[in-house]
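ok, trying the design again with the full structure, not the truncated one.
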């Protein structure tokens, strides 16, 4: 299959970021699919987009193969891994929040629980450098224990191995270890497309 045309939409805060450059100091994108580094105003670049792409690809996992590529390259519908799990995995309902608890804290806790292994977390902290936000990630990470265990995506039931591998590569917490767009599209999960 050859893609001859790409349509972009819903890009009200889109920006061209030259290779090797970063957006610094802003919370870029919608909080539902924002990368961990974007949540804390860290360096945002193409790796950040790859994380968000992982959330979006997950949403479309149940579409028949010809429709997946059509959606990936022509739709601006940005949802979460809803199609597979019948829920928005980062969505936070008001009823879930304790008094004074911020929805963003729950989103970050879920991102860490589902996608951050030790190496990924260390890579993210290195990426953030001396940012005070490193403390936020460390506190959330250290809050997991026997009573509040991590729920790694790689262990979720009812999810195919190839899909887990693709999403795990897209959503690696270490921005420098995330798949590139070319690597993602060459992944075996897209093999039948």
């Amino acid at each position: 299959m050859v893609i001859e045309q790409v349509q972009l939409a819903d890009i009200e805060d889109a920006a061209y970021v030259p290779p090797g450059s970063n957006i610094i100091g802003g919370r870029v994108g919608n909080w539902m699919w924002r990368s961990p580094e974007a949540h804390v105003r860290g360096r945002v670049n193409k790796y950040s987009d790859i994380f968000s792409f992982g959330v979006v690809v997950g949403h479309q996992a149940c579409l028949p193969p010809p429709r997946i590529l059509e959606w990936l390259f022509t739709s601006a519908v940005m949802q979460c891994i809803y199609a597979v799990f019948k829920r928005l995995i980062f969505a936070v309902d008001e009823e879930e929040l304790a008094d004074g608890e911020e929805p963003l804290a729950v989103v970050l806790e879920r991102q860490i629980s589902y996608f951050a292994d030790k190496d990924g977390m260390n890579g993210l902290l290195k990426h953030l450098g001396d940012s005070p936000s490193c403390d936020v990630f460390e506190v959330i990470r250290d809050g997991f224990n026997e009573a509040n265990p991590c729920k790694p995506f790689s262990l979720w039931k009812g999810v195919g191995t190839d899909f887990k591998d693709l999403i795990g590569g897209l959503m690696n917490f270490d921005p420098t270890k995330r798949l590139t767009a070319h690597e993602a599209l060459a992944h075996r999960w897209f093999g039948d497309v």
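Keeping the full-length input from now on. DSSP finds nine helices and no strands in the chain.
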